[in-house]
What does this fold into?
Amino acid sequence: MKLAAGAAVTPFQSWATQSSLKLAMGVGDYSDESLFFVRQMGLHWIDGPARLRTEGPFRPLLPPPGRVPAGVGGSWREDELAAVTGKLKSFDLQLGISMLPSMPNVLLGNARRDDDLAHVTDAIRLAGRFGIPVVEYTFTALRSSAGYYARQGRGGANLRAFDYDRIRHDPPFAELGRVSREEMWERLGYFLKAVLPVAEQAQVKLALHPNDPPVPEYRGVAQPVCTASDFRELFAKYPSPASGMTLDTGVMRECGDNPVDAIRYFGERRRIHHVHFRNVRMETPRLKYLETFHDEGDVDMGAAMTMLEKVGYRYLIVPDHTPELPGDNERRMGGWAMAVGYMKGLAGE
It folds into this structure.
């Protein structure tokens, strides 16, 4: 579209060509309070649900223990997505990524997995129609979140820590049993063979979030994609340009990898379709670590931001897992504002 002389270029008009880093905010609801907060921080991009939720639930510092997948995944609705994008536009915001519907039967590898895949492929087609460039998914059959606990940080802030020893001896669930890495990779392959052609046709990118926490297995269930090596294997097996990753700087460091090197490697190959930007202090790779403020962990966050720009990364950069500040509200706005301000400083905004 050719703009009239002197016309402003909005984020919506310039997505495909805009070269600047796109800082964004993840939201769990589309209340006016949440959206005003995002705009007050000077952001234009949203990572949020495909449903028009207008209140909570708010994510607690410590997530609930992982559960065995069950039921059949839901589906996106065109009217809901239209309401979401319409409300965001009224706030000068755009949805840059959304999580795909749940797919419990794909994760379990059972006879109902094609029912879940139908919902997922419908969502990908809707994303293409509504101009949502990226959809995210996880492939964790059983999350080891029971290993999290709270620790106090500077000034009494509440930080989230993880120690595998807290859950190392938890037995397998009877209804799930033991699931090997090879079995999880077979299930992941079944999923990708079904959805990648749809994503290519819809011109939508997929972003696989690494298993987080990144333990090798939990209660006998393998966690298939965590490390940089795992992602290299993924892209070698499924080289579609639609196949990509959420590069989580925290998880990369938790795994013992260097996030800056990972950004260089995967960014040069155009495999990074989403970024979670956070810092950690790692004690034992994959097994024990502390999630910190941006300015006090092991990751060189400045070098990470510089490398994202150097490799020409053009999708969203979202803060994640912010510490909990005493006296903050249930949305943890103080923590998120600090995270975004730090990121804006690194990005030169």
Notes: The mean pLDDT is 93. DSSP finds ten helices and 14 strands in the chain.
